[in-house]
Every structure is written in structure tokens, then in C-alpha cells.
Amino acid sequence: MSKNKNTNKNTEIEVKEFEINKEGKLIPCYELKVGKKIIGTLEETEPKKISVIMDGETAMVVKTVEEGIEAVIRQWNLFQ
Predict the structure, then answer these.
(1) Does the pLDDT at position 4 exceed 60?
(2) Which of 24, 32, 49, 51 is the most exposed, having the fewest neighbouring CB atoms within 10 Å of its CB?
């Protein structure tokens, strides 16, 4: 009889803040990485309007950066 052991691994997620220039406006952005892999990007397009971008496409729009980070992590956990 074999036993499966569930092990929880802590994964460090790096959040890098930067700005991009879109149509002459500087847009705050946040890049989420696990190791060398980018798992998502957030773009603050308007106040209280954060675009969550995963796999090169806007997946959803949230109101805060924290909500966006949680959404990316939740999605990444589902498909890792």
C-alpha cells in the first residue's frame, strides 16, 4: 500500500513595479513573476480600474492592485 504525502511548498512571487507610456500618458504597471516566469501583469488604466493581463490577454478588470495580484495568484495556482 502506498501513501501519498501532501507537501505544501512556499513559492516566492516577485512583484515588480514599472511604468509604460501609452498615448503620452505614463501608466503604472505591475509584473508578477515566479522564478523567471511572468505569471501576470497589471495595468492601472484609470483610477480604480486595473486590467489583469495573463497569457498576453486581458483576463479581467478589478478595482485595486491587491485584487489583481490575488486574481493572478489564484489563476496561477489552478493551472500550475
Answers:
(1) no
(2) 24
